[in-house]
């Protein structure tokens, strides 16, 4: 009766079951997975946000498949403020990054075609691809004191069915940025095989230190057809507003052909709400206040991690360049799942296992640097104490 696209086991995993039980018993859990900025104890400009959403223009419905012109102009202005040339005609609004992927997979792929995705990375790619009846094929990121794209593995993964390469820049959860030599190599592959690039740049505002070799955005690239993703969720810490965008890049002729087709797809759904579009210029302006707080929070927690993990510790902090997450390598004395279950059951600390993000080997734990600092430091201390007993 049901579609074969929904082929996953729908049972709750052991960690989620244990967490539900602990919460039902009233346990005080130190949640080191918190990535929702609206629950992270940040100070939002509440009055200004509410006023921005209360404009009388929102009472009139003007269906605009690519998004209302003032809203698209606001996104283009935001790119230009970051030193990236952008015109509103290259912007298409969506309700989320997930919807943007859905549109792009519809645009680029036929039934059974392939999209190359990074590994480790965002855990929803397999679902998003399967819902569009395309196949997600992983290519590896390698770690040797820092993360890098295995360009040779990308080349080997390309088949006649490949349609696009997905980049997450910076990556979630590794926090690694694409480097210029990697971009040049990937561009050459795309030119040779007639592939598009999808660059997920939702965390691009959150770099920890400058690096001239880093690629901050593909928005200015004109070598191959490209799509850069962003949104209010990270740019303004407002995931509940449900507004993202696609910025087109690449040769002008291909951009125009892609834009026309994307507008047709968007016109079928018209999913972006009118109030948030009218509020967008103000929300983007207000977003700096929230971003600044997030910057301070993630840096404070990362600095704590660096000092808390001593050279003699059995735990190791992997290098991270940006984003909201950090990765700890822990002893392989037990599986990642066992680590997380023991920490939750014995220490009331919640972390995510690396396999949630498709790490290729054991044993890695992922922590959110957005966690309120008191909870973060207390939870990390419990984790390190538990690791010392191994």
Describe this structure in words.
With 390 residues, the chain is α/β, with parallel strands linked by helices. It is built from twelve helices and 14 strands. It has helices at residues 14-24, 46-53, 69-81, 97-108, 125-131, 151-157, 180-193, 232-235, 252-269, 274-308, 336-347, 373-388, and strands at residues 30-31, 91-94, 114-119, 135-143, 147-149, 162-168, 196-200, 226-231, 244-249, 316-317, 325-329, 349-350, 352-353, 364-368. The strands form three sheets. Strands 2-9-8-7-6-3-4-5 form an eight-stranded mixed sheet, sandwiched between helices. A four-stranded antiparallel sheet has the order 10-11-14-13, covered by helices on one side. The protein has a two-stranded parallel ribbon with strand order 1-12. Strand 3, helix 5 and strand 4 form a beta-alpha-beta unit. The radius of gyration is 21 Å and the shape is globular. The model has no long low-confidence stretch (mean pLDDT 96).
